[in-house]
Design a protein that fits this description.
The protein is an alpha/beta fold and about 300 residues long. Helices cover about 45% and strands about 15% of the residues. The termini are far apart. The chain binds 1,3-dihydroxyacetonephosphate and iron/sulfur cluster. 1,3-dihydroxyacetonephosphate (13P) binds near residues 42 and 200. Belongs to the quinolinate synthase family. Type 2 subfamily.
Length: about 300
Amino acid sequence: GSLTGLDLRAEIDRLRTEKNAVILAHYYQKPELQDIADFVGDSLDLSKKAAETDADVIAFCGVRFMAEVAKILSPDKIVVLPDMDAGCSLEDSCPPDQFKAFREAHPDHIALTYINSSIEVKALSDIIVTSSSAEKILSQIPMDQKIIFGPDKHLGGYINRKMGRDMLLWPGVCIVHEAFSETELLKLKALHPDAPVAAHPECPPHVLDHSDYVGSTSGILNFAKTFPGDTLIVATEPHIIHQMEKAVPHKQFIGAPGADGNCNCNICPYMALNTMEKLYVSLRDLEPRIEIAEPLRLSAKKSLDAMLSMAS
Ligand code: 13P
Ligand code: SF4
């Protein structure tokens, strides 16, 4: 097409300066997108960056709910998402009308909600959490406060067990983390008996039970930089291994397998929609843009502001 022959890296650099844009990328993005970004991080880091930036344009290499958070916190900026179809299975598993009915069925509960959710569900919630902030935030909520937690039942279940809570869980899952195979993981552990396993709390309990470290993407990356051995099994989306290999090149990082014995089925299909070509076009055209009606933005912002103040 018309993009052949373009030096995409150079063009993206030129447009970034010309449009006074900042490029934010999640750890699950393709290596070339991580490498061209001004900042790479987990969902909490990225929302803080979006709230603080003085750029005119935020080009968000991640999924749509993350770009929406950027727009909610920085409404005067243009926020572009290279591919507007970059959704999230957790968001899809929690339709706002059903979540509203769930809330109404439990009027004495507050709603603690994972950031991997639609803007409408955020607007129906009291406090948003990310995987890196959930425990800190929950520890500030009295033990006798009744809580509903959605959409991720595995993250909710993990926090319930770890913190002795009994939050009522919405039955949502992430299709990516759900796909790890316990049998294949045990086979891999047998091949690498000294390698610890680091897992994201979106993994089901049969994966978390075999893990030595459980945490957010930034937590897992930090573990990869500091663990004492030389091989690590990584039970989260495998694109994060790019940052590990850059930070600790002499160590070996192995993606935990799915049922087919390799880690390719654990690539997030939504994150994978963003490409260098689409990033270039989104900076050139300042489209596709995230646009949010102001009343909805203000309602969703309340629960996000609660997160930012309780997480800091
Ligand atoms: P983190 O907040 O840990 O980066 O997780 C985001 C995500 O989508 C995990 O699947
Ligand atoms: Fe959503 Fe799972 Fe992809 Fe994260 S990895 S964006 S939770 S589908």
